[in-house]
Structures are given as structure tokens and as C-alpha cells.
From TrEMBL:
The modification 4-aspartylphosphate is found at D67. The lineage of its organism: Bacteria, Bacillati, Actinomycetota, Actinomycetes, Nakamurellales. It holds the Pfam family GerE. GO terms for biological process: phosphorelay signal transduction system; regulation of DNA-templated transcription. Residues 14-134 form the Response regulatory domain. One of its GO terms (molecular function) is DNA binding. CDD domains: LuxR_C_like (cd06170), REC_NarL-like (cd17535). It comes from the Bacteria. This is DNA-binding response regulator.
Length: 235
């Protein structure tokens, strides 16, 4: 476990790297530290070391990039503990995984991860995901949505509604439906605001209403509900 230059809340996004491969951490550090709005504040080689790292940083961590398969304590268990101990929603966990091989990504989302990306994501996708998660958005790798839908469909809120004769989707305004389509496509709040010519704060309000109306715990569930309802891909 190695520490880094700690930053203040007004400074760059504080990122912690958790991966058992030194070269992987080194590559991420070079990319992230080259950004003016980000700083790597520490590294850990497994989940147990990650918990100690986060607890030791005086100014905290905004985003943890978390591998899943690691010795001592895997990323799922570490995510669960970090989320349970978090204050003011920090740190938020972004899981990086080779999805086709990794059986634990679903458990990581249930444990409270703010989203996940494939490890072969382009650098700009990774950087955008870190910024989105730091803002409070959730990120889902678009290429993995189909598998997520297959895995979670049976446990999602039914779009036909829990109450007889009630259809939550029918209660959505046209604007809320437009926002839901964008969320289903993996867009961040900033991207939705740009595409729909809205203020980002207004987008956040719409997302909050969608969570309430569709009885979803988080943005990941919104994505899956939208796909099950056939709203995805309607750009």
C-alpha cells in the first residue's frame, strides 16, 4: 500500500487505485495524474489494504477504482465495507473488470458500487467515468448492459407496477421519459443536459423523480428497468 499527495475538497478529484497488479496501477496512475482535475492519492494491492488506505488518508478519497479478483479481501467485500463506512457518500467505488471472466460484478453492484467499466475501456471513457462518479452519477459499461439485464431482470421492479392497474412508466412526463432513455444509454447528467438542452441541476431533479416513480434504488436499476421496458436505444 502506498500513499500519495493528499488534496483538499476544493482541489482535484482524489482517486485511490486498488489492483493486485503493480503495472496496472502504474498505468492508471500515469493517466490520472496527467489530468488537471484529478490526483491519485494512494494505491493498494488488495481489498484489505484498500480499507486501511482509505481510513488513513486525512482528507479522504472521492473515487476508488476497484479491481474485483484480489488476494486477502476481494473487491466485492471491500466495496461493501467501504460503502457501509462511508460518510457523506464518499468514497464512491468504480469497479473495473474483465466482464466475460468476472463472476462477481453483479455482487459488487449489490454491495453499493457506483458502477463499473471493462478494463479495456478507452482512456477517455475511464476518465469520464471517474468524473461522473465523483459528481454522484453512476456509470454502466454499455457493452455489459445486456448481461446485467439477464442477471437482474427477475429482481427488478415490474414496469407494470406493484399495484394492480398501476403503470409507473405511464406516470412519467415526456421529459422524464427522454431523460430515462438517455440514462439507459449510459449518458452522465452532464451529457444529458447537453443533449436535451437542460441545466445539469434540472437533470438531477428528473433523475431523482425517476428513481422515486420507478421505485429504483440507484441509476443502475433505472438502466435495467428502461431496457426491460423497451426504452433503450430510442435516440
Amino acid at each position: 500500500m502506498t500513499g500519495g499527495t493528499d488534496t483538499t475538497g476544493a482541489g482535484p478529484i482524489r482517486v485511490a487505485l486498488v489492483d493486485d497488479q503493480h503495472l496496472v496501477r502504474g498505468g492508471f496512475r500515469m493517466l490520472i495524474d496527467a489530468q488537471p482535475d484529478m490526483a491519485v492519492v494512494g494505491e493498494a494491492e488488495d481489498g484489505r489494504a484498500a480499507l486501511h488506505l482509505v481510513a488513513s488518508l486525512r482528507h479522504g478519497v472521492d473515487v476508488v477504482l476497484m479491481d474485483v479478483r484480489m488476494p486477502r479481501l476481494d473487491g466485492v467485500a471491500a466495496t461493501r465495507e467501504l460503502v457501509a463506512a462511508s460518510r457523506d457518500g464518499r468514497p464512491r467505488v468504480l469497479v473495473l473488470t474483465t466482464f466475460d471472466l468476472d463472476e462477481y460484478v453483479h455482487a459488487a453492484l449489490r454491495a453499493g458500487a457506483s458502477g463499473f467499466l471493462l478494463k479495456d475501456a478507452r482512456p477517455e471513457e475511464l476518465l469520464g467515468a471517474i468524473r461522473a462518479v465523483a459528481r454522484g452519477d453512476a456509470v454502466v459499461a454499455p457493452s455489459a448492459t445486456r448481461r446485467l439485464l439477464d442477471a437482474f431482470a427477475g429482481r427488478l421492479p415490474d414496469p407494470s407496477g406493484a399495484d394492480a392497474g398501476r403503470d409507473p412508466l405511464a406516470e412519467l412526463t415526456d421529459r422524464e421519459r427522454e431523460v430515462l432513455v438517455e440514462v439507459a444509454g449510459g449518458a452522465t447528467n452532464a451529457e444529458i443536459a447537453d443533449r436535451l438542452s437542460m441545466a445539469e441541476g434540472t437533470v438531477k431533479t428528473h433523475v431523482g423523480r425517476l428513481l422515486a416513480k420507478l421505485q429504483c434504488r440507484d441509476r443502475v436499476a433505472l438502466v435495467l428497468v428502461a431496457h426491460r421496458a423497451g426504452l433503450a436505444g430510442r435516440h
